[in-house]
Specification:
Chains A, B: It comes from Pacificimonas pallii. Two copies of one chain form a homodimer. Chain A is 62% helix and 7% strand. By secondary structure, the first copy, chain A, is mainly alpha-helical. Chain A binds a DNA duplex through helix 5.
Chain lengths: 146, 146
DNA sequence: GCTCCTTTCTTATCATGATAACCATATCGC
DNA sequence: GCGATATGGTTATCATGATAAGAAAGGAGC
């Protein structure tokens, strides 16, 4: 993700508004600001995760598995359904997490098409070490806006 | 961009907060909501732009050139500096816009390293046809939050 | 119990972001 | 004015998102 470094000034938006009556200057300005904020925050998060050999997606996968009840048996599809990402990306990313020893992918006994994904001890540890900085970063970002 | 479809519930955040005192539940919840909103909005925008054979980046480039003073001579680097995107991506994307006839890329007389980028009539037209729906979409999104 | 449709996951391929390393040209210091 | 450094742009390569299409298994209708 990326976005304009210098958002349009109020004056520029008003110039556009004169030509585009369907436009609400305040709402447009708010949306642009939000997208810029999200863009900057997500970049910062990804840089932070990289230090743990994670990405935003790999982190989200760990957290989705972790927050499930202890006896839950999440399949690859279950995880994909909880995150807004396509199936092939899930396949590839889970393989990478498994290669890194952070998750286990095992066949599901009941349905031979499915595979059950669980966190390894290393995965739980990696997540635990990542969380404090993560919460700190997003709290800190919001602190400038609230 | 992508993000959790189901954001953590207040209850789950409080469970994490108990283990992570540095975490401010309200701020974390606000940041997660913002990223989710931005993610959804950007997807919708990209889908909208695709109908005009544009992407968010290609659109931003057109708007950055357009909003400059009529006699401004933006170079490739100038545009890159206004948008949060790397130089090679600018090179590739500008080439694509030029191939599509939406911009002109001409050598700069003064500095032989630089190239000056301008909108063609087709580029201005494409931008003009894209803007109303764009403003409508982001106004509409914000309307649900303001 | 076949046939057909659905579901789960994978493979192949493309689009588009990033960095590293490279020319060509400008500019700075002396 | 010449060597060193900085700047503008490109090429090569990788990371990671998407869609399309297929294999394997499950399930529904008859």
């Amino acid at each position: 993700m990326f976005f304009l470094k210098d958002l349009p000034t109020q004056r520029m938006l008003q110039r556009y508004a004169a030509e585009h009556p369907e436009m609400d200057v305040d709402k447009v300005a708010a949306a642009l600001t939000m997208m810029r904020r999200a863009s900057v925050l997500i970049r910062a998060l990804d840089a932070y995760f990289a230090a743990f050999d994670l990405s935003l997606l790999r982190f989200l996968i760990l957290i989705v598995i972790d927050r499930e009840a202890a006896d839950a048996r999440l399949t690859i599809g279950d995880i994909g359904r909880r995150i807004d990402v396509s199936k092939p990306v899930m396949t590839r990313t889970l393989k990478r997490l498994a290669d890194g020893g952070l998750i286990d992918i095992a066949p599901d006994g009941a349905d031979k098409r499915s595979k059950v994904v669980t966190l390894t001890a290393a995965g739980q540890d990696r997540l635990a070490r990542t969380l404090p900085g993560y919460f700190k970063m997003i709290s800190g970002d919001m602190a400038t806006a609230m």
